Write a sequence for this structure.
């Protein structure tokens, strides 16, 4: 080695040294952090342990790839072939809406299904039913009962939502009662995808005052945005970790689902 170094001229030595330094820096450099994986780690600490390279590591040792390596996906591909990295590409904005969502702005509709199936269970195999609990929905307004998952404390959280909603004036009752459903083990109409209803982590409020993009879609043009749900209701759900389908371009104003990662929340 020493002999070799003696034969190198100074310029060559410096060039070689720089090349070695660059290579070692590259080798030591951590992979780009994934905001999506980091938000999930914060939101679901009971389930998730850490990020290792391109793996999201669960507490039971299960590993899921964060990126599938595909950097450009069109909108339909994002929905049909999402990876973990894609789930938070579109930021969800809590608080009063600032107008109609932009074209295809659907924060939360991009879901990596193996992630939610592992967390809440696979409803086709009875994995979700095992975690259901019955709760009373707005009992003072005769809201009846709902079955919702206990995973991630969703049942407790929805009960807390109900307690806060019950403090609103009675004029709000018509939007909330009767609720249109929670658990439903079926695919989203016209797709091969599952909604958060398949995991019993979502609720539809009364359909009587709600709007759904498919009802308004006419002739293949842009979808006119329509909403009749007061923000007071949305705010209470957001405060407890639920996002609202009324903030989607493909809106579904009756729909709320538990997605703390989209609200920047820490699981507790
Ligand atoms: Zn729904």
């Amino acid at each position: 080695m020493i002999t070799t170094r003696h034969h190198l001229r100074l310029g060559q030595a410096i060039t070689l040294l720089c090349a070695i330094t660059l290579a070692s820096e590259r080798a030591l450099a951590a992979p780009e952090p994934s905001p999506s994986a980091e938000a999930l780690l914060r939101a679901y600490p009971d389930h998730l342990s850490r990020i290792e390279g391109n793996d999201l590591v669960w507490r039971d040792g299960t590993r899921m790839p964060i990126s599938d390596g595909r950097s450009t996906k069109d909108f339909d591909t994002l929905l049909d072939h999402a990876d973990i990295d894609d789930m938070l590409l579109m930021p969800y904005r809590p608080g009063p809406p600032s107008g109609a969502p932009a074209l295809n702005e659907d924060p939360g509709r991009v879901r990596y299904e193996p992630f939610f199936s592992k967390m809440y269970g696979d409803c086709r195999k009875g994995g979700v039913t095992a975690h259901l609990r019955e709760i009373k929905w707005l009992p003072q307004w005769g809201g009846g009962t709902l079955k919702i998952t206990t995973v991630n404390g969703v049942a407790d959280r929805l009960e807390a939502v109900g307690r806060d909603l019950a403090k609103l004036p009675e004029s709000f009752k018509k939007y909330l009662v009767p609720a249109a459903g929670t658990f439903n083990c079926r695919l989203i109409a016209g797709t091969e995808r599952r909604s958060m209803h398949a995991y019993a982590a979502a609720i539809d409020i009364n359909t009587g005052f709600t709007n759904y993009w498919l009802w308004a879609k006419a002739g293949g043009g842009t979808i006119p945005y329509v909403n009749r749900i007061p923000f007071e209701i949305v705010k209470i759900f957001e405060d407890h970790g639920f996002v609202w389908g009324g903030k989607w371009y493909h809106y579904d104003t009756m729909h709320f689902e538990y997605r703390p990662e989209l609200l920047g929340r820490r699981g507790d």
